[in-house]
Amino acid sequence: MTHRVILSRPDDVDGWRDAARAAALADVAPDALLWAVEGEGDDLFGGTSDPLPAVARPPFVVPKRFLDLAGHVALHRDPERFALLYAMLCRLRDDPAVIDDQADPLRRRLESLAGEVRRDIHKMRAFVRFRELDGAYVAWFEPDHHVVRANAGFFQRRFATMRWSILTPGLSIHWDGETLREGPGAVRADAPAGDPVEALWKGYYASIFNPARLKVGTMLKEMPRKYWANMPETALIPRLVAGAQARETRMVERIVPGGNAIKAWEALRDEAAHCTRCGLYRCATQTVFGEGPVDADIMIVGEQPGDQEDLAGKPFVGPAGRMLDRAFEEAGLDRSRAYVTNAVKHFKFEPRGKRRIHSKPNAGEIKACRWWIDQERAIIAPKRIVMLGTTAIHSLMGKALTLSSQRGQALTLPDGTAALATVHPSFLLRMPDRDRAEEEYALFVKDLKAAVV
Amino acid sequence: MAQLDVREKLEILADAAKYDASCASSGTAKRDSAGASAGIGSTEGMGICHAYAPDGRCISLLKILLTNSCIFDCHYCINRKSSNVRRARFTAREVVDLTLAFYRRNYIEGLFLSSGIIRSSDYTMEQIVEVARSLREDHQFRGYIHLKTIPDADPALIAAAGRHADRISINIELPTAAGLRRLAPEKSDETIRDAMAGMRDAIEEGADARRRYRSAPRFAPAGQSTQMIVGADAANDRAIMATASGLYDRFGLRRVYYSAFSPIPDASAILPLRRPPLLREHRLYQSDWMMRFYGYRPAEVAEATDEQGMLPLDIDPKLAWALKAREHFPVDVNRAPRELLLRVPGLGVKAVDAILASRRWRRLSLADVGRLSRSIAKLRPFIVTSDWRPTALVDRIDLKARVAGQLELFG
């Protein structure tokens, strides 16, 4: 035979505990017990519980952890909550160690109900918004579960010296500074707008938001739309999101190279002297940073410092540098007006006896060093960039490309800067055939002429 | 300067404060106003986020500067001397009134006050302390207060700040001393670290005194934190993690905040034009968690980085570590100790504790583990259960591709 238990309120934790204890002692099976709340659902037969059978078992204890869990689950709006808790209670009565079996499906279900209630309690503490009304504070809130009574203590402890009311559709609570009273449900209009502090709060909300890092998904996860209607600041969100892109663009546009470019460049060079972004710093003598006027129109980017550059700490001072100087002059360019630097700023080599043989930097080293060349470009802002060889092309174009596919054309870098690609002078130095070398040199000079601004 | 009203000042001084990442209000001493005849406020351990901005950040505190005027010229800072942003200055009274008005309406947990440096470090620090003193003493405010202190201010002022505040922070600003020299030429790495060490001593002394005398005044019960800017100097992730772990060890910090450098209006030419991906900041937080909650040594987390010392952006660092340290896997969920379970990609602290409790009760199957964790698909290659053993899956070259779709473990 089935027994009905009618609880007096939807959050009647104590009522559930008394009835559940009596039923468990009387050995009433979980499926023989029907749980209802007075005035709710199919409460057709009036509000009295059926008498339970007599006690059939000795008293038992349950772990405290279960009571904590039940205290939360009982506040859930799920109509099955009391029956699920009773089923769990019966299992714990027979074996209290079941409380440790977290992989049990019923236990998982209860944990997830309790989790939803805890979240609702927390969100109520977070999202209740009081409005001042004749010296008292009134809030309208719509919880998902039966958490209002359970949360009263929090607001009482925090706002003990204020007079306040929290109105919800099912229940209202009022604090007058000394006692807590309960009242019937209310409507939103009972907490009318008009508190002037709301405008200040909205001003704060709009200003503390950083438009350069829009993450609407994260916001929605923590502050779902269902709460928005009762939070004044959320009215601003559509406008803030729509305006974010424009605001960020304005921020970036207003970045202008200041009058401190020389200082900025010097500071950058000093910081680069300590660079450990890739492993090349371990064997090289020093960082070889770029050189030249910080307002140069032309920027020349080579591969990496060679043996002599590594010792001197200056780019293009060895044989390749001398060839570059000569070609510059023939092309009608002023080397002293160009900024000269390398894609990779430490010398990479293989020791052979007493000599250090140049070794090509790999993609990782190029990528690690790109940070520096980006900084140099930001300060110097050249009109044209000349890339010498494939390492420079890789660094500036952002991917490995062959020289033959890029050479002789007007190129545009990903950020829009004009560029051109040609051979690295060391390639010319390494050519054994004098005639071919002369031909290639002529082509090199021809390429450089295209760089004249 | 024309007279600004409170709303205009609030907008300027909140805008200027938004580059500070911290908004935490947790981990302080418990207190409330029950039975009090005056005053307001409570802190109950757990922090509360009262709103979220469209940038996904929590708004827990009224986070403002006392003034955005500054005699320093730090390049990454919107408030630097040479910037031409609008300037404003609150009086201590205005900040106190705003804090209380917002608190009474349940908008905030308290105040996070910082300031540009005006006249001198001591003068500025005095103003900051005065706001906290007035809130605590004149208004019996029991909510949360976070004060940012100025490294070279008089220690007596810093001690006063610690008596009123729940949390104190001193920003390390940049992960490397070279970066600090370039971007904040007037600040000194040494002074910042000295101030942190002084704060650590004061916090420890305060806690010690409380242990002996219950009536001893509390000193910054929520500890100290710091923030570093990521992507404005040349430091790679490995260097940043090394700096962070050094700070945790030496100064007993509660938190290190990482703030991806973001473009600021009217920026100095010295700053990078390109901002780092926001995901980089997220990966650094994950590596931070691995050290603090998952028992990884800093050198182990560094193993998750690539040749350039950067954490991968496409997968989280715990998975990246597991893919490199495959000899540790698969882990038997029915036998392995806690430390090893914590290293399984996809198992968080909560799931591991649930596994440990449940396995005393039953031999766990794949379905059981599935109920205790978020995604079994990501876990499968790394675990052994009563009914599952990955057949050579851990040795597969394409393992990353097979699990990479099911990411994000820290939530």
TrEMBL record, chain A:
<dbReference type="InterPro" id="IPR005273">
    <property type="entry name" value="Ura-DNA_glyco_family4"/>
</dbReference>
<dbReference type="Pfam" id="PF13566">
    <property type="entry name" value="DUF4130"/>
</dbReference>
<dbReference type="InterPro" id="IPR005122">
    <property type="entry name" value="Uracil-DNA_glycosylase-like"/>
</dbReference>
<keyword id="KW-0004">4Fe-4S</keyword>
<comment type="similarity">
    <text>Belongs to the uracil-DNA glycosylase (UDG) superfamily. Type 4 (UDGa) family.</text>
</comment>
<dbReference type="InterPro" id="IPR023875">
    <property type="entry name" value="DNA_repair_put"/>
</dbReference>
<dbReference type="GO" id="GO:0046872">
    <property type="term" value="F:metal ion binding"/>
</dbReference>
<keyword id="KW-0408">Iron</keyword>
<dbReference type="InterPro" id="IPR025404">
    <property type="entry name" value="DUF4130"/>
</dbReference>
<keyword id="KW-0479">Metal-binding</keyword>
<dbReference type="InterPro" id="IPR051536">
    <property type="entry name" value="UDG_Type-4/5"/>
</dbReference>
<keyword id="KW-0411">Iron-sulfur</keyword>
<keyword id="KW-0234">DNA repair</keyword>
<feature type="domain" description="Uracil-DNA glycosylase-like">
    <location>
        <begin position="289"/>
        <end position="449"/>
    </location>
</feature>
<dbReference type="Pfam" id="PF03167">
    <property type="entry name" value="UDG"/>
</dbReference>
<keyword id="KW-0378">Hydrolase</keyword>
<keyword id="KW-0227">DNA damage</keyword>
<dbReference type="GO" id="GO:0006281">
    <property type="term" value="P:DNA repair"/>
</dbReference>
<dbReference type="GO" id="GO:0051539">
    <property type="term" value="F:4 iron, 4 sulfur cluster binding"/>
</dbReference>
<dbReference type="InterPro" id="IPR036895">
    <property type="entry name" value="Uracil-DNA_glycosylase-like_sf"/>
</dbReference>
<protein>
    <recommendedName>
        <fullName>Type-4 uracil-DNA glycosylase</fullName>
    </recommendedName>
</protein>
<dbReference type="GO" id="GO:0097506">
    <property type="term" value="F:deaminated base DNA N-glycosylase activity"/>
</dbReference>
From TrEMBL, chain B:
<dbReference type="Pfam" id="PF04055">
    <property type="entry name" value="Radical_SAM"/>
</dbReference>
<dbReference type="InterPro" id="IPR006638">
    <property type="entry name" value="Elp3/MiaA/NifB-like_rSAM"/>
</dbReference>
<feature type="domain" description="Elp3/MiaA/NifB-like radical SAM core">
    <location>
        <begin position="60"/>
        <end position="287"/>
    </location>
</feature>
<keyword id="KW-0479">Metal-binding</keyword>
<keyword id="KW-0949">S-adenosyl-L-methionine</keyword>
<dbReference type="GO" id="GO:0046872">
    <property type="term" value="F:metal ion binding"/>
</dbReference>
<keyword id="KW-0411">Iron-sulfur</keyword>
<protein>
    <submittedName>
        <fullName>Putative DNA modification/repair radical SAM protein</fullName>
    </submittedName>
</protein>
<keyword id="KW-0408">Iron</keyword>
<dbReference type="InterPro" id="IPR051675">
    <property type="entry name" value="Endo/Exo/Phosphatase_dom_1"/>
</dbReference>
<dbReference type="GO" id="GO:0003824">
    <property type="term" value="F:catalytic activity"/>
</dbReference>
<dbReference type="InterPro" id="IPR013785">
    <property type="entry name" value="Aldolase_TIM"/>
</dbReference>
<dbReference type="InterPro" id="IPR010994">
    <property type="entry name" value="RuvA_2-like"/>
</dbReference>
<dbReference type="InterPro" id="IPR023874">
    <property type="entry name" value="DNA_rSAM_put"/>
</dbReference>
<dbReference type="InterPro" id="IPR007197">
    <property type="entry name" value="rSAM"/>
</dbReference>
<dbReference type="InterPro" id="IPR058240">
    <property type="entry name" value="rSAM_sf"/>
</dbReference>
<dbReference type="GO" id="GO:0051536">
    <property type="term" value="F:iron-sulfur cluster binding"/>
</dbReference>
